[in-house]
Protein backbone atom coordinates (compact mmCIF):
# COMPACT_ATOMS: atom_id res chain seq x y z
CA UNK A 1 0.00 0.00 0.00
CA UNK A 2 1.39 3.36 -0.90
CA UNK A 3 1.33 6.01 1.76
CA UNK A 4 0.16 9.47 0.67
CA UNK A 5 -3.51 9.69 1.48
CA UNK A 6 -6.12 12.33 2.18
CA UNK A 7 -7.39 11.18 5.53
CA UNK A 8 -5.94 12.88 8.60
CA UNK A 9 -2.70 11.07 9.24
CA UNK A 10 -3.14 11.11 13.03
CA UNK A 11 -6.29 9.08 12.82
CA UNK A 12 -4.65 6.76 10.36
CA UNK A 13 -1.67 6.10 12.59
CA UNK A 14 -3.91 5.46 15.55
CA UNK A 15 -5.89 2.99 13.52
CA UNK A 16 -2.72 1.28 12.40
CA UNK A 17 -1.45 1.09 15.97
CA UNK A 18 -4.63 -0.42 17.25
CA UNK A 19 -4.66 -2.81 14.36
CA UNK A 20 -1.48 -4.36 15.67
CA UNK A 21 -3.11 -5.54 18.89
CA UNK A 22 -3.68 -9.26 18.71
CA UNK A 23 -7.25 -10.45 18.40
CA UNK A 24 -8.71 -7.09 17.43
CA UNK A 25 -7.67 -7.36 13.77
CA UNK A 26 -11.06 -8.16 12.32
CA UNK A 27 -13.10 -5.69 14.32
CA UNK A 28 -10.53 -2.98 13.75
CA UNK A 29 -10.47 -3.67 10.03
CA UNK A 30 -14.25 -3.61 9.95
CA UNK A 31 -14.32 -0.33 11.81
CA UNK A 32 -11.83 1.16 9.38
CA UNK A 33 -13.81 -0.06 6.41
CA UNK A 34 -16.92 1.39 8.00
CA UNK A 35 -15.24 4.75 8.44
CA UNK A 36 -13.92 4.65 4.89
CA UNK A 37 -17.39 3.82 3.69
CA UNK A 38 -19.00 6.73 5.50
CA UNK A 39 -16.38 9.20 4.34
CA UNK A 40 -16.74 7.87 0.80
CA UNK A 41 -20.49 8.40 0.91
CA UNK A 42 -19.82 11.92 2.21
CA UNK A 43 -17.60 12.49 -0.79
CA UNK A 44 -20.22 11.04 -3.10
CA UNK A 45 -22.86 13.30 -1.63
CA UNK A 46 -20.62 16.28 -2.24
CA UNK A 47 -19.43 15.15 -5.66
CA UNK A 48 -22.17 16.58 -7.91
CA UNK A 49 -21.72 20.06 -6.43
CA UNK A 50 -18.23 20.86 -7.78
CA UNK A 51 -19.20 19.36 -11.11
CA UNK A 52 -22.20 21.66 -11.39
CA UNK A 53 -20.27 24.77 -10.36
CA UNK A 54 -17.57 23.84 -12.82
CA UNK A 55 -20.16 23.84 -15.57
CA UNK A 56 -21.60 27.21 -14.60
CA UNK A 57 -18.26 28.86 -13.87
CA UNK A 58 -17.09 28.47 -17.40
CA UNK A 59 -20.38 29.41 -19.01
CA UNK A 60 -18.64 31.35 -21.76
CA UNK A 61 -16.59 28.29 -22.63
CA UNK A 62 -19.62 26.02 -22.73
CA UNK A 63 -21.41 28.70 -24.72
CA UNK A 64 -18.75 28.49 -27.39
CA UNK A 65 -18.87 24.70 -27.26
CA UNK A 66 -22.65 24.79 -27.59
CA UNK A 67 -22.41 27.18 -30.52
CA UNK A 68 -19.93 24.88 -32.22
CA UNK A 69 -22.15 21.92 -31.57
CA UNK A 70 -25.34 23.54 -32.82
CA UNK A 71 -23.55 24.86 -35.88
CA UNK A 72 -22.22 21.42 -36.72
CA UNK A 73 -25.67 19.89 -36.26
CA UNK A 74 -27.30 22.37 -38.60
CA UNK A 75 -24.61 22.31 -41.27
CA UNK A 76 -24.50 18.52 -41.30
CA UNK A 77 -28.25 18.36 -41.79
CA UNK A 78 -28.08 20.66 -44.81
CA UNK A 79 -25.05 18.86 -46.22
CA UNK A 80 -26.64 15.45 -45.94
CA UNK A 81 -29.85 16.72 -47.52
CA UNK A 82 -27.96 18.26 -50.41
CA UNK A 83 -25.87 15.11 -50.87
CA UNK A 84 -28.96 12.91 -50.98
CA UNK A 85 -30.62 15.27 -53.44
CA UNK A 86 -27.54 15.27 -55.64
CA UNK A 87 -27.41 11.49 -55.57
CA UNK A 88 -31.09 11.22 -56.48
CA UNK A 89 -30.54 13.65 -59.36
CA UNK A 90 -27.69 11.54 -60.63
CA UNK A 91 -29.55 8.25 -60.49
CA UNK A 92 -33.03 9.33 -61.54
CA UNK A 93 -31.93 12.10 -63.93
CA UNK A 94 -34.49 14.57 -62.60
CA UNK A 95 -32.00 17.35 -62.05
CA UNK A 96 -32.41 19.82 -60.39
CA UNK A 97 -35.54 18.77 -58.48
CA UNK A 98 -33.92 16.29 -56.16
CA UNK A 99 -31.30 18.79 -55.11
CA UNK A 100 -33.88 21.51 -54.48
CA UNK A 101 -36.31 19.38 -52.53
CA UNK A 102 -33.75 17.52 -50.47
CA UNK A 103 -31.75 20.62 -49.62
CA UNK A 104 -34.93 22.09 -48.17
CA UNK A 105 -35.59 18.86 -46.30
CA UNK A 106 -31.98 19.02 -45.14
CA UNK A 107 -32.63 22.48 -43.72
CA UNK A 108 -35.61 21.11 -41.82
CA UNK A 109 -33.56 18.18 -40.56
CA UNK A 110 -30.81 20.56 -39.52
CA UNK A 111 -33.25 22.65 -37.53
CA UNK A 112 -34.64 19.52 -35.87
CA UNK A 113 -31.11 18.37 -35.07
CA UNK A 114 -30.35 21.74 -33.58
CA UNK A 115 -33.49 21.86 -31.47
CA UNK A 116 -32.77 18.37 -30.20
CA UNK A 117 -29.20 19.31 -29.38
CA UNK A 118 -30.47 22.32 -27.48
CA UNK A 119 -32.81 20.07 -25.55
CA UNK A 120 -36.04 21.42 -26.98
CA UNK A 121 -38.41 20.40 -29.70
CA UNK A 122 -39.57 16.94 -30.68
CA UNK A 123 -37.33 14.71 -28.67
CA UNK A 124 -36.76 11.11 -29.38
CA UNK A 125 -37.06 9.02 -26.27
CA UNK A 126 -33.89 10.23 -24.76
CA UNK A 127 -33.67 10.46 -21.03
CA UNK A 128 -31.36 13.43 -21.09
CA UNK A 129 -29.67 15.57 -23.66
CA UNK B 1 11.14 29.19 -43.53
CA UNK B 2 7.86 29.27 -45.34
CA UNK B 3 4.55 30.17 -43.80
CA UNK B 4 2.51 27.04 -44.16
CA UNK B 5 0.15 26.34 -41.26
CA UNK B 6 -1.19 23.20 -42.94
CA UNK B 7 2.19 21.55 -43.16
CA UNK B 8 1.67 19.90 -39.77
CA UNK B 9 -1.15 17.78 -41.15
CA UNK B 10 0.87 16.30 -43.95
CA UNK B 11 0.72 12.52 -44.25
CA UNK B 12 4.09 10.92 -44.74
CA UNK B 13 4.35 7.42 -46.09
CA UNK B 14 6.88 5.31 -44.27
CA UNK B 15 6.34 1.84 -45.68
CA UNK B 16 4.22 0.98 -48.69
CA UNK B 17 2.42 -2.19 -47.78
CA UNK B 18 0.24 -3.30 -50.64
CA UNK B 19 -1.53 -1.92 -53.64
CA UNK B 20 -5.09 -3.13 -54.21
CA UNK B 21 -6.30 -2.11 -57.65
CA UNK B 22 -4.81 1.35 -57.54
CA UNK B 23 -5.44 2.02 -53.86
CA UNK B 24 -2.17 2.27 -51.99
CA UNK B 25 -2.09 0.94 -48.43
CA UNK B 26 0.84 2.40 -46.57
CA UNK B 27 2.18 2.61 -43.08
CA UNK B 28 2.10 6.36 -42.49
CA UNK B 29 2.92 8.74 -39.68
CA UNK B 30 -0.79 8.74 -38.83
CA UNK B 31 -0.65 4.97 -38.37
CA UNK B 32 2.43 5.34 -36.18
CA UNK B 33 0.63 7.82 -33.96
CA UNK B 34 -2.50 5.70 -33.77
CA UNK B 35 -0.47 2.69 -32.67
CA UNK B 36 1.31 4.97 -30.22
CA UNK B 37 -1.99 6.21 -28.78
CA UNK B 38 -3.28 2.68 -28.32
CA UNK B 39 0.03 1.73 -26.71
CA UNK B 40 -0.15 4.71 -24.34
CA UNK B 41 -3.68 3.87 -23.24
CA UNK B 42 -2.91 0.17 -22.90
CA UNK B 43 0.32 0.62 -20.99
CA UNK B 44 -1.12 3.28 -18.71
CA UNK B 45 -4.20 1.28 -17.78
CA UNK B 46 -2.15 -1.87 -17.30
CA UNK B 47 0.27 0.02 -15.09
CA UNK B 48 -2.52 1.74 -13.19
CA UNK B 49 -4.43 -1.44 -12.40
CA UNK B 50 -1.47 -3.68 -11.61
CA UNK B 51 -1.70 -3.17 -7.83
CA UNK B 52 -5.46 -3.15 -7.29
CA UNK B 53 -5.08 -1.81 -3.79
CA UNK B 54 -8.08 -0.98 -1.62
CA UNK B 55 -6.81 2.57 -1.27
CA UNK B 56 -5.81 3.52 -4.81
CA UNK B 57 -2.61 5.27 -5.61
CA UNK B 58 -2.41 8.14 -8.04
CA UNK B 59 -2.40 6.15 -11.28
CA UNK B 60 -5.05 3.78 -10.04
CA UNK B 61 -7.37 6.61 -9.05
CA UNK B 62 -7.02 8.12 -12.51
CA UNK B 63 -8.03 4.79 -14.00
CA UNK B 64 -10.91 4.39 -11.55
CA UNK B 65 -12.13 7.94 -12.06
CA UNK B 66 -12.16 7.58 -15.82
CA UNK B 67 -14.03 4.30 -15.47
CA UNK B 68 -16.64 5.83 -13.18
CA UNK B 69 -16.93 8.96 -15.29
CA UNK B 70 -17.69 7.03 -18.46
CA UNK B 71 -19.85 4.47 -16.68
CA UNK B 72 -21.99 7.23 -15.17
CA UNK B 73 -22.25 8.95 -18.54
CA UNK B 74 -23.34 5.78 -20.32
CA UNK B 75 -25.86 4.96 -17.58
CA UNK B 76 -27.30 8.47 -17.63
CA UNK B 77 -27.78 8.69 -21.36
CA UNK B 78 -28.37 5.09 -22.43
CA UNK B 79 -29.78 3.49 -19.28
CA UNK B 80 -28.30 0.52 -17.49
CA UNK B 81 -28.82 -1.68 -20.55
CA UNK B 82 -26.41 0.64 -22.28
CA UNK B 83 -23.61 -0.73 -20.14
CA UNK B 84 -23.25 -3.44 -22.79
CA UNK B 85 -21.55 -0.73 -24.78
CA UNK B 86 -19.38 0.53 -21.96
CA UNK B 87 -16.16 -0.98 -23.38
CA UNK B 88 -16.93 0.54 -26.76
CA UNK B 89 -17.59 4.04 -25.42
CA UNK B 90 -14.63 3.85 -23.05
CA UNK B 91 -12.32 2.84 -25.88
CA UNK B 92 -13.56 5.64 -28.10
CA UNK B 93 -13.25 8.18 -25.32
CA UNK B 94 -9.73 7.24 -24.33
CA UNK B 95 -8.59 7.02 -27.94
CA UNK B 96 -9.96 10.44 -28.87
CA UNK B 97 -8.78 12.01 -25.63
CA UNK B 98 -5.23 10.72 -25.92
CA UNK B 99 -5.12 11.54 -29.64
CA UNK B 100 -6.21 15.12 -28.96
CA UNK B 101 -3.84 15.65 -26.07
CA UNK B 102 -0.87 14.02 -27.79
CA UNK B 103 -1.53 16.27 -30.78
CA UNK B 104 -0.93 19.33 -28.59
CA UNK B 105 2.68 18.37 -27.97
CA UNK B 106 4.90 20.23 -30.46
CA UNK B 107 6.22 18.16 -33.38
CA UNK B 108 3.54 15.53 -32.98
CA UNK B 109 0.87 14.63 -35.47
CA UNK B 110 -2.78 15.16 -34.63
CA UNK B 111 -4.67 12.10 -35.77
CA UNK B 112 -8.10 13.55 -34.99
CA UNK B 113 -7.46 16.61 -37.18
CA UNK B 114 -8.01 14.35 -40.17
CA UNK B 115 -11.55 13.93 -41.38
CA UNK B 116 -10.84 10.36 -42.46
CA UNK B 117 -10.07 9.30 -38.92
CA UNK B 118 -13.01 11.04 -37.27
CA UNK B 119 -15.36 9.91 -40.03
CA UNK B 120 -14.22 6.33 -39.53
CA UNK B 121 -14.93 6.61 -35.81
CA UNK B 122 -18.34 8.19 -36.44
CA UNK B 123 -19.27 5.56 -39.02
CA UNK B 124 -18.26 2.89 -36.54
CA UNK B 125 -20.64 4.42 -34.00
CA UNK B 126 -23.55 4.79 -36.41
CA UNK B 127 -22.89 1.32 -37.87
CA UNK B 128 -23.04 -0.11 -34.37
CA UNK B 129 -26.32 1.72 -33.74
CA UNK B 130 -27.90 0.41 -36.95
CA UNK B 131 -26.66 -3.16 -36.64
CA UNK B 132 -27.48 -3.46 -32.96
CA UNK B 133 -30.85 -1.76 -33.44
CA UNK B 134 -31.94 -4.17 -36.16
CA UNK B 135 -30.41 -7.14 -34.38
CA UNK B 136 -32.17 -6.35 -31.12
CA UNK B 137 -35.50 -4.96 -32.29
CA UNK B 138 -35.88 -6.10 -35.88
CA UNK B 139 -38.15 -3.82 -37.87
CA UNK B 140 -39.31 -2.17 -34.65
CA UNK B 141 -36.06 -0.22 -34.91
CA UNK B 142 -37.62 1.71 -37.79
CA UNK B 143 -40.09 3.25 -35.32
CA UNK B 144 -37.19 5.52 -34.52
CA UNK B 145 -38.08 7.44 -37.65
CA UNK B 146 -41.78 7.75 -36.94
CA UNK B 147 -42.55 10.61 -34.60
CA UNK B 148 -45.65 10.10 -32.48
CA UNK B 149 -48.68 12.35 -32.37
CA UNK B 150 -48.43 13.65 -35.90
CA UNK B 151 -51.38 14.05 -38.28
CA UNK B 152 -51.35 11.45 -41.04
CA UNK B 153 -50.82 13.70 -44.01
CA UNK B 154 -47.63 15.15 -42.50
CA UNK B 155 -46.20 11.78 -41.57
CA UNK B 156 -44.37 10.86 -44.82
CA UNK B 157 -42.78 14.26 -44.84
CA UNK B 158 -41.60 14.01 -41.26
CA UNK B 159 -40.29 10.51 -41.76
CA UNK B 160 -38.09 11.75 -44.59
CA UNK B 161 -36.86 14.59 -42.40
CA UNK B 162 -36.17 12.17 -39.55
CA UNK B 163 -34.20 9.90 -41.87
CA UNK B 164 -32.11 12.81 -43.10
CA UNK B 165 -31.63 13.93 -39.52
CA UNK B 166 -30.44 10.43 -38.59
CA UNK B 167 -28.08 10.29 -41.56
CA UNK B 168 -26.61 13.65 -40.64
CA UNK B 169 -25.47 12.32 -37.27
CA UNK B 170 -22.24 10.69 -38.38
CA UNK B 171 -21.46 13.83 -40.37
CA UNK B 172 -21.94 16.17 -37.44
CA UNK B 173 -20.17 13.79 -35.08
CA UNK B 174 -17.07 13.59 -37.26
CA UNK B 175 -17.19 17.18 -38.49
CA UNK B 176 -17.26 18.63 -35.00
CA UNK B 177 -14.22 16.82 -33.71
CA UNK B 178 -12.30 17.31 -36.94
CA UNK B 179 -13.13 21.03 -37.25
CA UNK B 180 -12.28 21.77 -33.64
CA UNK B 181 -8.90 20.11 -33.80
CA UNK B 182 -8.03 21.48 -37.25
CA UNK B 183 -9.03 25.05 -36.42
CA UNK B 184 -7.20 25.02 -33.11
CA UNK B 185 -3.97 23.71 -34.55
CA UNK B 186 -4.03 26.10 -37.50
CA UNK B 187 -4.68 29.04 -35.15
CA UNK B 188 -1.71 27.99 -33.01
CA UNK B 189 0.54 27.75 -36.05
CA UNK B 190 -0.58 31.11 -37.44
CA UNK B 191 0.21 32.88 -34.19
CA UNK B 192 3.54 31.09 -34.01
CA UNK B 193 4.39 32.44 -37.46
CA UNK B 194 3.47 35.94 -36.23
CA UNK B 195 6.05 35.58 -33.49
CA UNK B 196 8.75 34.52 -35.93
CA UNK B 197 7.84 37.18 -38.47
CA UNK B 198 7.77 40.02 -35.96
CA UNK B 199 10.91 38.96 -34.16
CA UNK B 200 12.85 39.09 -37.40
CA UNK B 201 11.86 42.77 -37.83
CA UNK B 202 14.33 44.21 -35.36
CA UNK B 203 14.05 45.51 -31.81
CA UNK B 204 10.55 46.92 -32.14
CA UNK B 205 9.50 43.58 -33.53
CA UNK B 206 10.71 41.79 -30.43
CA UNK B 207 8.31 43.77 -28.29
CA UNK B 208 5.56 43.22 -30.82
CA UNK B 209 6.31 39.51 -30.85
CA UNK B 210 5.47 39.14 -27.18
CA UNK B 211 1.81 39.79 -27.92
CA UNK B 212 1.22 36.79 -30.22
CA UNK B 213 3.50 34.83 -27.92
CA UNK B 214 1.15 35.32 -24.99
CA UNK B 215 -1.69 34.58 -27.35
CA UNK B 216 -0.08 31.22 -28.07
CA UNK B 217 0.15 30.48 -24.36
CA UNK B 218 -3.52 31.31 -23.93
CA UNK B 219 -4.51 29.37 -27.03
CA UNK B 220 -2.60 26.32 -25.87
CA UNK B 221 -4.55 26.34 -22.64
CA UNK B 222 -7.78 26.75 -24.59
CA UNK B 223 -6.80 23.94 -26.93
CA UNK B 224 -6.14 21.62 -24.02
CA UNK B 225 -9.64 22.36 -22.81
CA UNK B 226 -11.08 21.85 -26.28
CA UNK B 227 -9.18 18.57 -26.63
CA UNK B 228 -10.69 17.16 -23.45
CA UNK B 229 -14.11 18.66 -24.10
CA UNK B 230 -14.34 17.26 -27.60
CA UNK B 231 -13.41 13.80 -26.42
CA UNK B 232 -16.15 14.10 -23.82
CA UNK B 233 -18.68 15.39 -26.36
CA UNK B 234 -17.82 12.56 -28.72
CA UNK B 235 -18.40 10.01 -25.98
CA UNK B 236 -21.64 11.66 -24.81
CA UNK B 237 -23.09 11.76 -28.30
CA UNK B 238 -22.02 8.18 -28.89
CA UNK B 239 -23.95 7.04 -25.86
CA UNK B 240 -26.96 9.18 -26.79
CA UNK B 241 -27.01 7.58 -30.24
CA UNK B 242 -26.58 4.14 -28.73
CA UNK B 243 -29.61 4.90 -26.60
CA UNK B 244 -31.65 5.10 -29.80
CA UNK B 245 -30.47 1.64 -30.75
CA UNK B 246 -31.37 0.25 -27.33
CA UNK B 247 -34.72 1.97 -26.92
CA UNK B 248 -36.14 2.89 -30.31
CA UNK B 249 -39.73 4.01 -30.69
CA UNK B 250 -41.84 5.13 -27.81
Key phrases:
heterodimer; A: 129 residues; mainly alpha; 2 domains; 5 helices; rod-shaped; disordered N terminus; B: 250 residues; two-stranded antiparallel sheet; globular
Sequence stretches where pLDDT stays below 50 over 5 or more residues of chain B:
none
As laid out across the biggest beta sheet of chain B, the strand order is: 1-2
Distance between the termini of chain B: 60 Å
User: In DSSP terms, counting alpha (H) and pi (I) runs of 4 or more, how many helices of chain B?
Assistant: 6
The strand count of chain B comes to 2
Q: Give average pLDDT of chain A, whole number.
A: 71
Helix content of chain B: 55-70%
**Main pleated sheet of chain B:** 2 strands, antiparallel
Question: What's the total count of β strands of chain A?
Answer: 0
Residue-averaged pLDDT of chain B: 88
Topology order of chain B in helix (H) and strand (E) letters: EEHHHHHH
Apparent shape of chain B: globular
Number of helices of chain A: 5
Q: How many discrete domains of chain B?
A: 1
Supply Rg of chain A.
Answer: 29 Å
**Largest interface, chains and sizes:** A-B, 31 and 33 residues
> What proportion of the residues of chain B form beta strands (DSSP E)?
5-15%
**What structural category characterises the helix and strand content of chain A?**
mainly alpha
Q: Biggest β-sheet of chain A, characterized?
A: none
Keywords (chain B): ATP synthesis, Cell membrane, CF(0), Hydrogen ion transport, Ion transport, Membrane, Transmembrane, Transmembrane helix, Transport
Membrane topology (chain B): Multi-pass membrane protein
Transmembrane segments (chain B): 27-48, 82-105, 111-135, 142-166, 186-207, 214-242
Function (chain B): Key component of the proton channel; it plays a direct role in the translocation of protons across the membrane.
Amino acid sequence: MSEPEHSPSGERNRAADQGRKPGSDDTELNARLERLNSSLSDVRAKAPVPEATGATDTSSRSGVALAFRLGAEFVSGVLVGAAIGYGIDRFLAISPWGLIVFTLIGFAAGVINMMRAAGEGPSRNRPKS
Amino acid sequence: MTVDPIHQFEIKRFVDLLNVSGVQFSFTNAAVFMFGIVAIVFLFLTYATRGRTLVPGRAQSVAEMSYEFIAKMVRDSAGSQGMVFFPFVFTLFTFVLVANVVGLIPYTFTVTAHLVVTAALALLVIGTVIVYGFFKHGTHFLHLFVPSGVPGFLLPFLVVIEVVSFLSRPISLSLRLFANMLAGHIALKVFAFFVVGLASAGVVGWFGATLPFFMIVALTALELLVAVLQAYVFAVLTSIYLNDAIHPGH
